[in-house]
Write a structure and sequence with these properties.
Blueprint lengths: L8 E2 L6 E2 L8 E3 L5 E3 L17 E2 L16 E10 L2 H5 L7 E9 L1 E6 L2 E5 L2 E2 L17 E6 L11 E10 L5 E3 L4 E4 L6 E3 L7 E3 L2 E10 L6 E11 L5 E11 L4 E9 L5 E9 L4 E7 L13 E3 L3 E4 L4 E5 L1 E3 L5 E5 L5 E3 L5 E5 L4 E11 L2 E11 L9 E4 L1 H4 L5 H13 L9 E3 L30 H9 L4 E6 L16 H11 L3 E5 L12 H16 L6 E5 L17 E3 L8 H8 L14 E3 L7 E2 L6 E2 L4 H13 L4 E3 L8 H7 L2 H7 L8 E6 L2 E7 L5 E7 L5 E6 H4 L6 E4 L4 E5 L3 E6 L4 E6 L1
Parallel strand pairs: 24-31, 32-33, 32-41, 33-34, 34-35, 35-36, 36-37, 37-38
Antiparallel strand pairs: 1-2, 3-14, 4-5, 4-6, 6-12, 7-11, 7-13, 7-14, 8-9, 8-12, 9-10, 15-17, 16-17, 17-20, 18-19, 18-21, 21-22, 23-26, 25-29, 27-30, 28-29, 30-31, 39-40, 42-43, 43-44, 44-49, 45-48, 46-47, 46-49
Helix pairs in contact: 5-6, 7-8, 8-10
Length: 755
C-alpha cells in the first residue's frame, strides 16, 4: 500500500510529490530545451562551452527511447535558463531554491554554471570537489537544494545546468519529466509519513496511524488538515474530518484514518491549507481483500505436472492447504521415489524417462482431497513457471544467511508452501566483493563465500529440510552487478560448487560480461549461457537456469536453445505503476515462445516491503495496481518470484499470493501466455487459453478514472464455456452470456475464467 502522488512539485525532505502550482516567479519549468551528447568530457560542465552542435533531447523518457538504445556508459545533458531577480524577492521564508531534475537512470553529477552542485540527489557545498562517481537510486527523483546566496547561482542572468549521467546497463538517462526550479515553501518541511505506514486490518476495519512532522528547525506551521475518503468503484464518500495544525519547529502530530473494510479501494485525500494560503495535497488508497479464507478441509494446490531429469535427486512438495495435522499418500509412485506421510515431500532419485501418473491424497480431520500429479522424467525442467522468493528487491547486497532462512521459515509458517511457492533464492552479495583484498577463490579455483554465509551447503540443507528449493546467483563476467566475484573462466568450478551445496536454481546475470563479449551478435549473447548450461549438466543435480540479460537480442527467440528455462525480457522492475505496467503490458511479441520449460520473465514481483537494500518501504504500488500486477503476471505465465521481506507479510499481501484460483492460471499445464485481444482507450482485455479448455480473461483499466466496460466474449473468441467465474473472489457470477458488463477501478483489473 502506498500513497498516490500528484505530479510536478517535489518534496525534498520526505520524498513525496505534491500538487502542481501555476507558473509564477516562485517556480520556473525546466523541462524543455535540453541538449545531449552521448560521450564523456570534463569540459562539458563548463558554462562557456559551445553546445550548439549537441542534439536536442526530451527529459521525460529514457535515451533508449530516443535512438540511444545501445548507449552504455556516460552522456551529458545541458540546459540554459534565465533566473529572474524578482524570484528572489518572492522568497518570504528565505530558504532558497529547489532544483528538481526528475528521475535519472542510473547515476548523475550535476553542475551549475560550471561549478559542481551535487551527485545522485545529494547537494554539496560550494567549491567541493566531486566525489567518486557511482550509480544512484535510479527510480528516485533527483532534487538539489541551494541557499539564496549560493555563489553558484546567477540571479537576473542566464544560468547553465550540466548533468553527467552514467548508465552501466539497460535503459538510461534523464526521464520522468517535471524538471523545474522553485522557491522553498512550507510544504517542503512537511514530513507526511503516510507513505511509510501501511494500513493494518482490525476486525472489520482498516486503520492507519502516522505522524505529520515539521522538519524545519526555525519555522512554525499552522493551518488545517482535511481528510476525505470515497470508494473508487461506488464513488460513495465513507469518511470526512478536519484537524487543526499547530506545529512548532521539529514538532509532530498523529494522523488517524479508520475505515470499514469494503469490497473496493477507497481513495483518501489529505489536504493541508497553511495560514499563509500555501496548500499541498496527498493521495492515499486503502487495501481490500478479495481472496476468501482458506477452507479448513484439505485442498491440493500448485502445479499438477512436474519435470525432472533421470537419475538426478528428486524433490517435490505437495502443496496442500487446510488444518494441520495432515497426512499424505501417493499411489503408483515410480520406483526410487517415496513420500513423507507427515510433510507430503516426495524425494528419491528420478526414474527412467517416461511419464508417470500419480494420485496424491491429503487427509485431515475435516476431510480428504485427491488429485492427479504427472511426473515427467526427461530433458525438461520447470514445466510450469517457477514460484518462489528472491532476496534482491528487499535486501539487495545486504542479504545474509539468517534473512534467507527467515524467508524460508515464513514460506512454511505463513502457508506459502501450501499454495505452491517453492524456491528460496539468494541474489547478489554472497560472494567476495571484487574490490576486497581478500582472495576470491581457493587454490583449486573454487569460489569463496563472504562472512554473511558461513556454510552454503548447510544453508542448502536447511532449505531442503523445509521441503523447499534453493536458488543462487552469479554472472558470466568477472564481476556481478553488485561488484562481487562472477563466474568468468571458472564456470565448471562454480557449477560443481552449486551442485555440492544442493542448488536447484541459478540466476545468471549478464552485467560485466559486456566487457568480455566481442560484440552484440546473437552468437556472443548466447556463448556465456551455453558454457554455464554445459557446466551445470555435468553435475548430479537438476538446476534451473535463469538467463538475466534484459531481453537483448530478443532472447526469447533463442533462450531455450542455450538450455535456459526462463529469460528476462526487460530491464529491472521497480515498485511504480510506470515501471510495472510499462513492462507487463509490453509482453506481446514474445508470447509465441512461452511453453512448458520455456518462460518469458518480466522480472520479479514488487509487492510488500521492498527497498533493494537495508532500508525498506511498503511498495509504492497502490492496492488496485497490485491486483493488476499479480493478475497480469499470472496471465503472462511469468515466473513468480516474490521480492519482499516475508517477515512483514500483512493480510493484504497474503491475499495477493495465496489465491489458488489466480495462481492456477499461472501454473496451468498448457503453458500458454496471454495476449491482448481488445485495446479500447485505456481498457485492455487479455486472454489466456487453459489446459482444461477454459480461458482466463483479464480486463484491465490503465486509465486514471474508474471505467465501465462491456466485454463481448464472441469478439474475444471465447464461445464454448458455460459459466463465468470471478477468480479473485472465487465465486461463480452466473451462466456465460454473450456480453458481460463490469466496473473497473483506476489501474485495476477484473480477472475472470470462462469454464
Amino acid at each position: 500500500m502506498t500513497l498516490k502522488i500528484l505530479p510536478l512539485v517535489f518534496l525534498a525532505v520526505a520524498g513525496i510529490t505534491l500538487s502542481a502550482q501555476k507558473p509564477s516567479l516562485r517556480q520556473i519549468p525546466l523541462d524543455q530545451g535540453w541538449v545531449f551528447n552521448p560521450s564523456d568530457n570534463p569540459a562539458f560542465a563548463d558554462a562557456g562551452l559551445n553546445d550548439g552542435t549537441w542534439r536536442p533531447i526530451k527529459v521525460n523518457v529514457n535515451w533508449d527511447e530516443q535512438g540511444q538504445e545501445e548507449l552504455i556508459g556516460y552522456a551529458w545533458y545541458r540546459l540554459r535558463f534565465m533566473l529572474p531577480k524578482g524570484m528572489r524577492d518572492e522568497d518570504k521564508l528565505k530558504e532558497g531554491l529547489l532544483l528538481a531534475l526528475g528521475k535519472i537512470d542510473d547515476g548523475d553529477q550535476v553542475f551549475l554554471n560550471g561549478e559542481f552542485l551535487g551527485q545522485n540527489g545529494r547537494t554539496f557545498a560550494p567549491e567541493t570537489e566531486p566525489p567518486e562517481f557511482k550509480t544512484g537510486p535510479w527510480d528516485l527523483e533527483r532534487v538539489y537544494r541551494l541557499a539564496a546566496d549560493d555563489p553558484r547561482i546567477k540571479w537576473g542572468q542566464e544560468n547553465l545546468i550540466a548533468v553527467r549521467v552514467v548508465n552501466p546497463n539497460g535503459a538510461g538517462g534523464m526521464y520522468g519529466g517535471g524538471q523545474h526550479i522553485r522557491l522553498v515553501g512550507l510544504k517542503d518541511f512537511v514530513d507526511f509519513q503516510a507513505d511509510m505506514t501501511p494500513f493494518t486490518f482490525y476486525g472489520n476495519e482498516v486503520v492507519k496511524t502516522f505522524d505529520m512532522i515539521n522538519r524545519s528547525d526555525k519555522i512554525a506551521m499552522s493551518g488545517t488538515l482535511s481528510i476525505e475518503a470515497k470508494g473508487l468503484i461506488s464513488g460513495k464518500k465513507v469518511t470526512q474530518n478536519r484537524k487543526t495544525i499547530d506545529l512548532a519547529p521539529g514538532e509532530k502530530m498523529p494522523v488517524n484514518v479508520r475505515l470499514g473494510q469494503r469490497d473496493e479501494a477507497c481513495e483518501i485525500s489529505y489536504q493541508i491549507v497553511f495560514k499563509d494560503g500555501e496548500t499541498c495535497e496527498y493521495r492515499d488508497e486503502s487495501p481490500y481483500i478479495l481472496t476468501p479464507p482458506v477452507p479448513s478441509s484439505p485442498r491440493i494446490n500448485g502445479a499438477a505436472v512436474f519435470g525432472a531429469k533421470p537419475d538426478k535427486p528428486f524433490l517435490y512438495t505437495v502443496a496442500a492447504s487446510g488444518d494441520r495435522p495432515m497426512t499424505f499418500s501417493a499411489s503408483e509412485l515410480p520406483d526410487g521415489l517415496t513420500i513423507d506421510a507427515q510433510t507430503g515431500v516426495i524425494t528419491g532419485i528420478t526414474p527412467v524417462r517416461g511419464t508417470y501418473k500419480v494420485k496424491i491424497t491429503a487427509k485431515n480431520i475435516r476431510g480428504i482431497a485427491v488429485r492427479d500429479l504427472e511426473i515427467i522424467s526427461g530433458d525438461r525442467l520447470a514445466l510450469t513457471p517457477p514460484m518462489g522468493w528472491n532476496s534482491w528487491n528487499c535486501w539487495g547486497t545486504a542479504v545474509d544467511e539468517e534473512k534467507v532462512v527467515a524467508s524460508a521459515k515464513n514460506f512454511v509458517e505463513k502457508g506459502l508452501r501450501d499454495h505452491g511457492w517453492a524456491y528460496i533464492n539468494i541474489d547478489d552479495g554472497w560472494q567476495i566483493a571484487g574490490r576486497s583484498p581478500d582472495p576470491k577463490r581457493d587454490s583449486d579455483g573454487n569460489i569463496l563465500i563472504n562472512n554473511k554465509f558461513p556454510d552454503m551447503a548447510r544453508l542448502g540443507r536447511r532449505i531442503h529440510d523445509l521441503g523447499l528449493k534453493f536458488g543462487i546467483y552469479s554472472s558470466p563476467g568477472p564481476l556481478t552487478c553488485g561488484g562481487y566475484t562472477g563466474s568468468y573462466q571458472h564456470e565448471q568450478n562454480d557449477a560443481d560448487s552449486y551442485a555440492s551445496w544442493g542448488v536447484d536454481f541459478l540466476k545468471y546475470d549478464w552485467c560485466s560480461y559486456r566487457r568480455i563479449a566481442n560484440d552484440t551478435s546473437i552468437a556472443e549473447l548466447k556463448k556465456p549461457y551455453e558454457v554455464m548450461r554445459d557446466a551445470l549438466d555435468k553435475g548430479d543435480r537438476d538446476i534451473v537456469l535463469s538467463l538475466c540479460q534484459y531481453g537483448m537480442g530478443n532472447v526469447w527467440e533463442w533462450g531455450e536453445s542455450v538450455g535456459g528455462q526462463l529469460w528476462r525480457t526487460t530491464h529491472d522492475i521497480t515498485d511504480t505503476w510506470e515501471s510495472m505496467s510499462g513492462i507487463g503490458f509490453s509482453q506481446v511479441s514474445n508470447a509465441p515462445y512461452a511453453k512448458p520449460g520455456s518462460w518469458n520473465d518480466p522480472d520479479m514481483l514488487v509487492i510488500g516491503w521492498v527497498g533493494w537494500g537495508p532500508n525498506l518501504h511498503p511498495t509504492r504500488l497502490r492496492p488496485d495496481e497490485q491486483y493488476t500486477h499479480i493478475s497480469l503476471w499470472c496471465l503472462l505465465s511469468a515466473p513468480l518470484l516474490i521480492g519482499c521481506d516475508l517477515t512483514r507479510l500483512d493480510p493484504f499481501t497474503l491475499n495477493l499470493i495465496t489465491n489458488d484460483e489466480v495462481l492456477a492460471v499461472n501454473q496451468d499445464a498448457l503453458g500458454k501466455q496471454a495476449t491482448p485481444k481488445i485495446k479500447e482507450g485505456q481498457i485492455q482485455v487479455w486472454v489466456k487459453e487453459l489446459h482444461d479448455g477454459g480461458s482466463a480473461v483479464g480486463i484491465f483499466n490503465l486509465g486514471d478514472e474508474t471505467a465501465d466496460f462491456e466485454v463481448n466474449f464472441e469478439t474475444l473468441g471465447v464461445k464454448d464455456g458455460k459459466k463465468l467465474r470471478d477468480l479473485w473472489r472465487q465465486k461463480d457470477i452466473g451462466p456465460l452470456n454473450k456480453k458481460h458488463s463490469t466496473r473497473i477501478s483506476p489501474h485495476g483489473v477484473v480477472l475472470l475464467k470462462v469454464i
